[in-house]
Every structure is written in structure tokens, then in C-alpha cells.
């Protein structure tokens, strides 16, 4: 049974890492390594973006000149959780010790940043350290706000309620599929920015595939309640996904935002965002299985800093990734206000731009790197089927392969299931993968953007 503390607000700032207190030994080790608290480069956050950038700059700047501040013991490859939730992979294989992914040339400050003083080039940590920098990369990700849905933390302790978005709730998804007898299978997408906006649908199509395989699909009413007004941001893939949902007999309700779960009655209540009444009209669905994609937001420590916009996101120039006010600060990944879909694929592409631009700033040169918004989402639509969406800031396709990726394909399924995990661990986190642009150029005989 899932402990209530796991999903309480106390830990809600932890988007993906191991829940638990950090051992005293760990701090004393850190303290002895931390005699030098002044660095040329400080990276805040050791997720996909932070590890990738430390790999790029750790050896370039030389030992002792780069530090990464990250409190968690384990680094997780979060896209794996879609496969874990689909019952196709084991959750244990989604994480590796943080120590093993931080480059040897980079000092790991195993601590949490609690405040930023960008006018003094200083950050303060929970453990009472003051760390100064010449340059800083902010890569703090976004957190899961399960507690913002009334009744949801309690509901996670009951059968049938699950979420692929957290380490602590993802294994409930295959269990909910197995336990399902008869009734509604409800899938949600919230009214905030989220990471991997395709994941709320991928879990639904894998559940559909499972139910067909075991012969209970006719016992289930599939309902997709999304706060968005479209199936997916990029129109080309939105049209295809609407067809996929229709073919599978899934009812799609736009502008439906989950606000409450009553786990005693097994009911989920949604506000209708299209309603012009105040308070908005609501609609309640009984559920047998409920997969929740929670609202998300940046960590509080970043939200209360002078580095963010009104919605709490790090304000960077969307093309250069440089902070709009502090030229020695850059951002990468989910915590930035860059208007593209938040994915590890976007981070790969951003990492090449950031590598060039940070190097140029350090050398006092103009910034050469320009990010075009490239992002990608492998939209699994069933066993052996996947649509690989790739697009830019204008939501226009920027596809790697020389065929129409808008159609379901077995090859793309294998790309997602078998190829992307080694790509992540071995190439991206070592700073060697900056997105598929070279392959795109080659496959399109140099004609692609
Ligand atoms: C279910 C699911 C499916 C996904 N599927 C895909 C997919 O198919 N393809 C894809 O490309 N992407 C996918 N993603 C998205 C992808 O995993 C994220 O976009 C990416 O990992 C974000 O990287 P990040 O570095 O911005 O943040 P994270 O990797 O979340 O890292 C942020 C880090 O910052 C640390 N941190 C937070 N606050 C502080 C602080 N105060 N001080 C110090 N450190 C702090 C955290 O501990 C964490 O380690 C998926 C995500 C999920 C959850």
C-alpha cells in the first residue's frame, strides 16, 4: 500500500527522485569536498538537462571548476515509466545511482538550493552553504502537484488510481489494468504545462491494447478527459491521434479539468473549462480505473527567486537560452519558459545550443547558437505501434526519417522501446547527443531545415 507521506506536499517538490532523507554521512562527505565553494560554473539540478550540461563542461573547464547541486541519490530516466506503466518494463531499470551519472570532473554538492542571489552570483543551500559562481545553468525541472487535486493523495492508496508520472505511483498502472473488471477507465490531462504532453495518451492506448489482449475490452468504457481544446499541440499529429482514439472507441472530452477524486465513491469530478458560469459547471464520472496526469509547476525555490516570470518559469531568451536579465545565467529543460513541449528530446537539442552559447559568453564572443524549438514525442498507440511526433516552435513537423511519421509505425515503436533508453544513458547523459539534426539532414539529402 502506498504511504500517504510519499505523495504529501512535503515531497511534492521532488519530481522524480528517490524519496527519503539524505544520510548524515552523505552530508559530511559533501562538506569535506566542499571546501572550495566558488566555481566557474554551477549547475542547479542533476536531471536530464543538468547531467547533460555538466558532462559537456566538466572536462572542458577542468576538475574543481564545475559543481552540480542536486539532492537526490538516484537519477531516473522518466520516459521509461510509460513502458513500466504499460507492464512492458521493470521500474528498477529506470534509475541509476546519481554518483554514476555525474562526471568525475564535476563536484557533486549533494544538497538543495533554497535561494538565489543573482546580483551577487550566489546560491544558498538547505545545508547552509553559500556557493558562488561566474556562470550558472538552471535545470531544476518541474514538480508534480498531486496535492492540488482534492482527494487525490488519499485516492492513490486505493486500488485503480494510478499515475505513470511518479516513481511511487507508476507500478499501480499495470496493477489497475489487471484488476479491472467492468466500468469506466478514465484518463486525464491537467490545465498546466506538463512534461511529455503525449504520455497521458500513451498510457491510455497501452491500457486499451492490454484489455484487448486479455479479452476484457468490451467491459470497459474508455474516457479521455483533457483540459486542452485539442488532442495534441502540433496539428498534424493531433488529427492522427483523434482518428486513433475514434478507431479504438475512446470518448474524448476537451476542456475537462480534474478537480476532485472521491475514492470512497470511486468518482472523479471535472470542471468544464468552456463553462462561462462562476463557479464553472462540473461533471462527475464513476471510475474503475483512473490514470491521473497531475498539474505541474516549477520548484518553489525557483518560483520565489528573481529569475522567473509571473508563472514561475525561468525567463530565458527562447533562441539563445540565456537569461533575459542576467547574461551569465542560462536555462535548460522543463523549468524554463521556452515555449515548446517539455521533453528530454527538447533538452538534447537545447544542449547543443547551450554548449555553443555558454562557451561564447565565457570567451566574450557573440552567441552563435539558435534553438528552433525542436521537440519530439514517441506517441505509442498500441503494442508495436507508434507515431513519432517531431516539431518546432511553430508546431510544424521537423521529422528525422524520410517517410511520413504521422502514420503509426512498427519501426518507431522499436525506436521508443529499444533504442531511446541506451541513447539516453550512453549518449545524452555523456554530452554526446544533441538531437537528430545530422540524421535529418542526411535522410533528407540536405534538404531539411
Ligand atoms: C511518464 C513520463 C514520460 C515521458 N516521456 C518522454 C518521452 O517519451 N520523450 C522525451 O523526450 N521526454 C519524455 N518525458 C519528459 C522528460 O523526462 C523530461 O522532460 C526531462 O527529464 C526533464 O529534464 P529536466 O532536467 O528539465 O528536469 P528533471 O530531469 O526532472 O530534473 C530536475 C532535477 O532538479 C533537481 N532539483 C529540483 N529542485 C532542486 C533544488 N532546489 N536544488 C537542486 N536541485 C533541484 C531534481 O531533484 C531533479 O533531479 C517523460 C516524462 C515522464 C514523467
Automatic annotation (TrEMBL):
From the UniProt record, report the name of the gene that encodes this protein: LOC106465023
**Name of the protein described by the UniProt record:** Sulfide:quinone oxidoreductase, mitochondrial-like
Q: Which organism is this entry from? A: Limulus polyphemus (Atlantic horseshoe crab)
Q: Where is the FAD/NAD(P)-binding domain?
A: 39-157
**One Pfam family hit:** Pyr_redox_2
